[in-house]
Amino acid sequence: MTTDEAEGRQAERVLRRGEPVAKAILESFARQFASLAQHYAPGVGAKNPNANERKYERWARLTVDASRALIAFEEPRLGAVARSGSRASARRSPGTAPGSTSRP
Known about the structure:
68% helix; 5 helices; mainly alpha
């Protein structure tokens, strides 16, 4: 049995069990990244002894990236909006100018 066949069989077993593997993994990482971002967040009122702007920005960016990837699992329409770059471009009818949100 080749590696591809073994991976295919494993994927079939997972799908039969109904496990949303990719979604669950993304959700788990998004939560972990958000927790780490919060840990390193610069304090606004009270001073955070763990504050580290470089680490905060890194974990916050990864949180946003994982959250963006989750959109496709949450709501198909939101996934299309996220890929298009803006809500306005998702509402624009074919043939209308960018910035225009009119519909026929």
